[in-house]
Specification:
By secondary structure, the chain is of the alpha+beta class. The protein contains three helices and five strands. The relative contact order is 0.23. It comes from Caulobacter sp. 602-2.
Length: 143
C-alpha cells in the first residue's frame, strides 16, 4: 500500500482501538491511545494513535487530531524518559510503504535509545508480553 488508497477498517490498530485484539496500554482517553510496540526496536518502544481518526498518514490527518497526537506523543516521550532513563529518545512516523510504514493507521513511535545499544530492526522479533506489561506499568507510573 502506498500514499494513495482508502482506510482499511480491518487494520491491526483499528482492531486494537475496538478492543478486538489485545494491546499493552500505557494511557488512553477518548481521543488517543498509547501502547507498547509488540515488536520493539528498543526497550520501551511505544506507539501513540488516534482513537477517532481514519487518517492513514500525516498527510490525511485532521489538524485537530494531529495536535492531540502531538501532545500525547510528548506526554509519552516524557513518561518513557522519566521511567526508563534512556540516553536519548527517537520520535518518528512513517508515511507509505516505501517510507517504512507497515500499519496504515497514523501512529507516532517513541523509541528510547541507550548508549552503546544498537537500534533493533524495524519489524523484528516479538516481545515477551510480561516484559511489555512491566515496562508499561513503569511508564504509566511516570505519567
Ligand atoms: P510502522 O511500520 O511505522 O507502520 O509501524 C507499525 C508498528 O506497529 C511496528 O513498529 C510494529 O512493530 C508495531 N506493531 C505491529 N503489530 C502490532 C501489535 N499487534 N501490537 C503492537 N504493535 C504492533
Amino acid at each position: 500500500m502506498s500514499l494513495t488508497g482508502s482506510y482499511d477498517d480491518a487494520n491491526i490498530f483499528a482492531k486494537i482501538v475496538r478492543g478486538e485484539i489485545p494491546s499493552v496500554k500505557i494511557f488512553e482517553d477518548d481521543a488517543v491511545l498509547a501502547f507498547m510496540d509488540a515488536f520493539p526496536q528498543s526497550r520501551g518502544h511505544a506507539l501513540v494513535i488516534s482513537k477517532t481518526s481514519k487518517a492513514r498518514n500525516i498527510l490525511e490527518v485532521e489538524p485537530q487530531v494531529l495536535a492531540e497526537l502531538a501532545a500525547a506523543t510528548q506526554k509519552l516521550a516524557r513518561a518513557v524518559t522519566a521511567a526508563l532513563k534512556p540516553d536519548g529518545v527517537v520520535v518518528t512516523q512513517f508515511n507509505g510503504a516505501p517510507a517504512g510504514q507497515t500499519v496504515f493507521h497514523l501512529h507516532f513511535h517513541v523509541i528510547p535509545r541507550y548508549e552503546g545499544e544498537a537500534l533493533g530492526r524495524h519489524g523484528g522479533g516479538m516481545a515477551d508480553i510480561d516484559d511489555l506489561k512491566a515496562l508499561a506499568a513503569k511508564i504509566s507510573a511516570a505519567l
